Task: structure prediction
Amino acid sequence: MTDDASESMVLHLYIAGMTAAAMHARTNILGICEKHLPGRYSLEVIDLIEKPELAEGRQIIAVPTLVRKNPPLRKIVGDLSNSDKVMSGLEIVPRQA
Amino acid sequence: MTKNADLARTVIEYSFDGLLVIDAEGFVQFANPAAISMFRHQTDQLTGFHIGVPAINEPVEITLPGLNGACHVEMRSTEMVWEGRAANLACLRDITDRKKAEEAVRKQAEELRERNHELIRFNSAAVGRELRMIELKQEVNQLCVCMGHSVRYRVTEDSTILPASTSDQV
Result:
């Protein structure tokens, strides 16, 4: 994934309504992606209140959950405030300032 | 198994808080009965489930969406070693009832605010109308004086205006 700088990282953020944790998760992942993957990611926010059928099919049992769609599939749960865990979980190589 | 290990397992099994051991890839390696109960509407096989790596610093409210309504839990997480490998220990506390109580209080406060606004609007309209009536009656009195007639209304000490006499009442 991160070996190929031209490949875009596809991320799905599952939430259940715009809760505080959901808003923090969205803000946190956008901050990380803008800093380390500018122009090389896509983020789709999926609200399970609007689309509950997606939870079972995509094996989501707790939200907020961030899913990296590119293989191998990765999942991270929580408000994504621990950026070290997020970056290691998504295999993002820190971008040099 | 040592006596201490037996005691620790008993505490874990009877804990009201859910405990999950999640490996570095996000798979559940261990779940105590409280955690299994919390996720009973989501999966019947929590151990081995790919729930995801916890990425939190502070306690975070997590939602467990379900067909019969969502369950809300507060999650804390810390790093640990499980069977010689790095893992995460997630502690889950069911706060669904607390959330419902908070929501009920919020709705009640909202209703009280709305009722209070209605009372203020009603009071403002009623008092405004009464003040206008007093002004009109004072104007009638002034016109009566100008025309050489006796006043039609009398003003009491508390500013209430009454007919000057029964025969003068409009």
Notes: Chain A has a mean pLDDT of 89. Chain A has one domain: 9-90. Helices of chain A lie at 20-36, 53-57, 83-90. Chain A touches chain B at residues 16-17, 19-21, 24, 48-49, 52, 55, 59-67, 74-83, 85-86, 89 (CB under 8 Å).
